[in-house]
Amino acid sequence: MLNGAFSLFLSLKGRRNNAPADISPSLVLNYRVLVIVILAIAAFALLLETFGLAPACFALILLSSGVIRDMSLLQKLIASVLGSALAVLIFAILLAIPVHIFTWPFGGLK
């Protein structure tokens, strides 16, 4: 968390300075990427308690893969499925963390 805050601080500090024209575009704060990553983390936090670990990881990976422009939708879906399966394997099975893999919050189906 401290690393992320420090990175954000340096990005914002560097944005305020008048950078020379030859500066690399990767050193300038990209608001599109920042918004997508924050939304993905927020979606993960909201979905984890409501729907479980697998759907939350799926949404996190699918939304955060939106920052990669040269990746097809099929590749994003495959990465999301494999990433959420890996998260379930690591956290729920191998580490035995008491987290629901899938839950249904609406009560109609149990």
Automatic annotation (TrEMBL):
<keyword id="KW-0472">Membrane</keyword>
<dbReference type="Pfam" id="PF07331">
    <property type="entry name" value="TctB"/>
</dbReference>
<keyword id="KW-0812">Transmembrane</keyword>
<protein>
    <recommendedName>
        <fullName>DUF1468 domain-containing protein</fullName>
    </recommendedName>
</protein>
<keyword id="KW-1133">Transmembrane helix</keyword>
<feature type="domain" description="DUF1468">
    <location>
        <begin position="29"/>
        <end position="98"/>
    </location>
</feature>
<feature type="transmembrane region" description="Helical">
    <location>
        <begin position="77"/>
        <end position="102"/>
    </location>
</feature>
<dbReference type="InterPro" id="IPR009936">
    <property type="entry name" value="DUF1468"/>
</dbReference>
<feature type="transmembrane region" description="Helical">
    <location>
        <begin position="32"/>
        <end position="65"/>
    </location>
</feature>
